[in-house]
Design goal:
It is built from three helices and twelve strands, in the order E-E-E-E-H-E-E-E-E-E-E-E-H-E-H. With 187 residues, it is mainly β. The structure holds zinc ion.
């Protein structure tokens, strides 16, 4: 049985946000662990996403792409629903959960009516990121835990690890390998 589509949600409402543009707010008290809404949009390949936004200003992060895995990108700019307006937060009350290559936004704690929803986009760093990528994806979520960037990890990785050190380095698995929001929803 396929998971039913959650295009709309009784839990939320979209309105202007003090963080950024439009935001998504709890229309009622949302218990912890609630599947709030599905992140919907046009399901395309990375190549299609690149082609579609080829002319997009690289200094503007306002697209609605959510990287599901290395094959699938959801472009909520086409056929998207309210989920695309959920802002990034470094210490959010929601998380993105990937199931059967679909994306669901779930609450990670009790959310009171009127609270803005947010989750960590954890936008992955890529080799061809422009030098000002941290500026483009600067975070102003206002959380005391704000790391100042929507990118993850917060620090630019050291380019070359000397071989001696590399041997000693224990490779830790990524926190959540495939289910990273990665280039998150580039808004
Ligand atoms: Zn932040």
């Amino acid at each position: 049985m396929p998971i039913p589509e959650m295009r709309t949600s009784r839990w939320i409402e979209v309105r202007n946000s003090p963080i950024h543009g439009k935001g998504v707010f709890a229309a009622r008290r949302i218990p912890k662990g609630t599947r709030v809404i599905e992140y919907l949009g046009d399901r395309i390949t990375h190549k299609q996403a690149d082609d579609r936004y080829e002319d997009h200003d690289p200094n503007d992060n306002h697209t609605f792409l959510f990287i599901v895995d290395r094959h699938v990108v959801i472009d909520a700019g086409v056929g998207g629903n309210g989920a695309r307006f959920i802002n990034h937060s470094c210490d959010g009350n929601c998380e993105s959960v990937i199931q059967e290559r679909r994306v669901f936004i779930e609450s990670t704690r009790l959310i009171e009516k009127g609270e803005e929803l947010g989750y960590d986009y954890e936008i992955g760093r890529e080799k061809d990121d422009p030098d000002n990528v941290d500026e483009i994806f600067a975070c102003r979520c206002g959380s005391p835990k704000c790391r100042g960037t929507m990118l993850y990890p917060a620090e630019k990785p050291v380019k070359k690890v000397p071989k001696k050190k590399a041997k000693k380095t224990v490779k830790k698995p990524a926190k959540k390998p495939v289910s990273r929001a990665k280039a998150g929803r580039r808004r």
